[in-house]
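Researcher: I'd like a candidate sequence for this fold, 504 residues long. If you have to choose between options at a position, lean toward the conservative one.
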């Protein structure tokens, strides 16, 4: 198929055993102008050289949590064998033909050739070891290398790579060390470049910080040397393939059943919602859940730094910011997107994360007929979220009195929903808070739903319950009456008052 399958990179009359020390070399450069479909072939020559670079050793005293058989502990002999087979593979294939093939067909062809190389070189391997080697090499050529087994797992929330030899994951709210490693900084850097190039971004010494995303919407951040001293740092915030719903959040204990009904009503009656929380608290997940109650005939426009929202409505326009080019020109900021989307006849505006002067434009949009708009920001409590909004507007250079800004916040934001990641790793919705108005120069809020920590069990897991604060007629009941949801709101609050709450 590839037209170069004769020598397999070595003399087959003098087979090389797996334990023989080999000096890797690559003799087949990538043809000029080669470009695999959907960016799959970008940086292939760099990845090849990274895959056959010197092997870094594993400290036997390091503790690893073995994830599964696909990423079991490997010694240096395995990597030497892999380098030898990889070199022979590159000498044996025509990369220009590889670029024209479908991904599945290319993977099968590579597996066939690697199997022949293993046989001709008389490399002694068990069937399971051979399958592992085949998958590894296919992942290096066509995928994301050592990250593939982690990306395939739906129970992993975060992947954190701190240089080529340290990789951590978050599972069930707990951060664990793994035995996944890259050959060296170049190998890791090439995987990072492969990821970011798919969305038109780049990362190198001249542009060492980059936000990007995977095809499934998972958020990716890369910071490269010289800013990252110990090698490139890659962080991937994964999103489940099966999108979470409020019903599933109830099942996981993130919110009670009455609380989920309250959130459904807030989303249904077009309340302007600000979702607040710390890093990894589940803000984006909660925002996705709330957007599920948007009517299917509403025109929704999303503005994000890295497109990760997964709205299910048919009439959605997704906008994404753009960083400056090498000359420092061409940047499109979040403010630019929000200003532009106001000209696109939106019915709701969803901002992935508010972190700067665009807070002013979002409040303006909420206050000028775009009811039901939503956004997220980093804060530790609903009151801190409102203070941060004011601070971001002030930092944007607006010479407005504090009272004017606070009046704008009061007239724009209806509800603040606070999400938190507790010390046991669990995620809970801790506050549903209304913004009532002003008393003097102070914004008045009231909590209508809270999470109360009651203690912990023998495994140090937090025990708590969601409860109503006893308010039977919140301010949002006026909107609920307009949308014929007032009776449902009353039932939800009564249920919250009467239920014993969910334990964490």
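Model: Candidate sequence:
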């Amino acid at each position: 198929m590839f037209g170069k399958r004769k020598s397999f990179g070595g003399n087959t009359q003098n087979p090389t055993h797996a334990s023989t020390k080999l000096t890797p070399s690559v003799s087949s450069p990538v043809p000029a102008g080669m470009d695999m479909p959907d960016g799959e072939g970008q940086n292939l020559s760099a990845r090849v050289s990274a895959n056959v670079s010197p092997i870094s050793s594993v400290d036997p005293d390091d503790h690893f949590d073995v994830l599964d058989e696909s990423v079991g502990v490997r010694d240096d002999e395995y990597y030497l064998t892999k380098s030898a087979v990889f070199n022979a593979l590159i000498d044996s294939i025509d990369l220009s033909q590889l670029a024209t093939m479908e991904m599945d067909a290319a993977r099968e062809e590579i597996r066939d050739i690697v199997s022949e190389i293993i046989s001709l070189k008389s490399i002694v391997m068990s069937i399971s070891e051979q399958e592992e080697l085949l998958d590894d090499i296919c992942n290096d050529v066509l995928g994301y290398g050592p990250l593939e087994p982690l990306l395939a797992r739906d129970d992993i929330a975060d992947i954190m790579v701190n240089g080529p030899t340290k990789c951590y994951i978050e599972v069930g709210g707990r951060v664990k060390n793994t035995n996944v490693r890259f050959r060296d900084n170049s190998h890791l850097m090439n995987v990072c470049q492969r990821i970011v190039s798919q969305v038109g971004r780049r990362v190198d010494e001249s542009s060492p910080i980059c936000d990007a995303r995977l095809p499934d919407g998972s958020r990716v951040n890369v910071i490269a040397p010289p800013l990252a001293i110990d090698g490139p740092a890659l962080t991937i915030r994964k999103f489940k393939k099966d999108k979470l719903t409020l019903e599933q959040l109830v099942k996981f204990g993130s919110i009670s059943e009455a609380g989920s009904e309250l959130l459904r009503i807030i989303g249904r009656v077009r309340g302007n919602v600000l979702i607040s929380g710390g890093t990894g608290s589940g803000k984006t997940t909660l925002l996705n859940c709330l957007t599920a109650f948007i009517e299917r005939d509403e025109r929704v426009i999303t503005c994000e730094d890295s497109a990760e929202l997964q709205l299910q409505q048919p009439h959605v326009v997704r906008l994404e910011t753009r960083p400056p080019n090498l000359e420092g020109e061409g940047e499109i900021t979040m403010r630019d997107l929000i200003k532009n989307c106001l000209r696109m006849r939106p019915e709701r505006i969803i901002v992935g994360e508010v972190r700067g002067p665009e807070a002013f434009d979002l409040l303006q949009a909420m206050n000028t007929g775009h009811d039901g708009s939503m956004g997220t920001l980093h804060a530790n409590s609903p009151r801190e979220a409102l203070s941060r909004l004011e601070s971001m507007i002030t930092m944007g250079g607006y010479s407005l009195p504090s009272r004017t800004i606070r009046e704008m916040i009061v007239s724009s934001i209806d509800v603040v929903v606070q999400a938190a990641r507790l010390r046991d790793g669990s995620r809970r919705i801790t506050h549903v808070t209304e913004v009532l108005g002003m008393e003097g120069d102070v914004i008045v809020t009231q909590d209508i739903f809270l999470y109360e920590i009651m203690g912990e069990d023998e495994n140090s897991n937090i025990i708590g319950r969601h409860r109503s604060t006893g308010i039977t007629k919140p301010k949002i009941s006026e909107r609920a009456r307009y949308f014929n949801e007032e009776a449902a709101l009353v039932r939800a609050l009564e249920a919250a008052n009467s239920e014993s709450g969910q334990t964490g």
